[in-house]
Amino acid sequence: MFGRITMPMATYKRKKRQGIHSKVVFGKSLHMPPAFAKVLERHNKDAWKVFRCYVHTVCDYAARSNTVKQNVLPLSKVAIQPNHLGPALSENATGKSNVLKTLQASANQSTTLSPFVMTSGHSDKDLPIFDADNLQAIRQGVHIEQTKIPTLIPPSELTDTRGKPVYLNAYVYDFFKHGSKTVIRKENGLDSGDVFDKLKDFKLVIAAISVALEELGPKSDNVVRAFRQLGNEYSKKFKLQYPSYRD
């Protein structure tokens, strides 16, 4: 859940051929218990629902302020002007043509999606279709940090931008087993600086969770004790590798 780093399967296979002793990656064989999977699925749905409401609100405000014209093609960046519609679709002496009036009458209305996306017949209710890439679907001039959405993709469903499966780098698990930053650098494919930063971040996350649990529940609770023990053991291994580090 924390400190996720992915590794393409091709990289993993190459490292396996070199001869490694660590787990290195978690792949499709890593499945959550059914109860956890249901909780995660419900959480993701709720997070996406809130995010879509946020996107609708921001885009609606942008549409009313009308600060950015919606007439630029996304790839070529060519601005389409009304007079480019041609004589068949432009106004004539008798008013708007029947073709133009028919098109306008049947057009979808949206303040969220870009006109380019709407040419495929999509409207605001279709925003969930573009959850994987909202930035390519919403109106121009709206910038949203989609990476900040607090959702979590199960390891068995992780893919790259081309839809090919990728795997979770098991550097945290491997370090907890052997406690060697050198092995992590060589076998898990992390740079020396990244090894320190990632391991330190995970140590701090576990410490924060442990403190929060002790505030919520009795110290004798098994979950509280488990996180306390995990934090202590992980911290010891970390300090052995980085003795000059001070909390």
Q: In short, what is this structure?
A:
With 247 residues, this protein is mainly alpha-helical.
Give a written overview of the molecule.
The chain is mainly alpha-helical and 247 residues long. It has helices at residues 9-18, 34-65, 98-106, 115-118, 171-178, 181-187, 192-216, 222-241, and strands spanning 6-8, 25-26, 166-169. A three-stranded antiparallel sheet has the order 1-3-2. Helix 7 (192-216) packs antiparallel against helix 8. The chain is elongated. The mean pLDDT is 77.
Q: Which helices and strands appear, and what pairs or packs with what?
A:
Elements: E1 6-8, H1 9-18, E2 25-26, H2 34-65, H3 98-106, H4 115-118, E3 166-169, H5 171-178, H6 181-187, H7 192-216, H8 222-241
Antiparallel strand pairs: 1-3, 2-3
Q: What spatial form do the alpha-carbon principal axes imply?
A: elongated
Helix content: 40-55%
Q: Which sheet architecture does the biggest sheet show?
A: 3 strands, antiparallel
Structural class: mainly alpha
Keywords, please?
single chain; mainly alpha; 8 helices; elongated
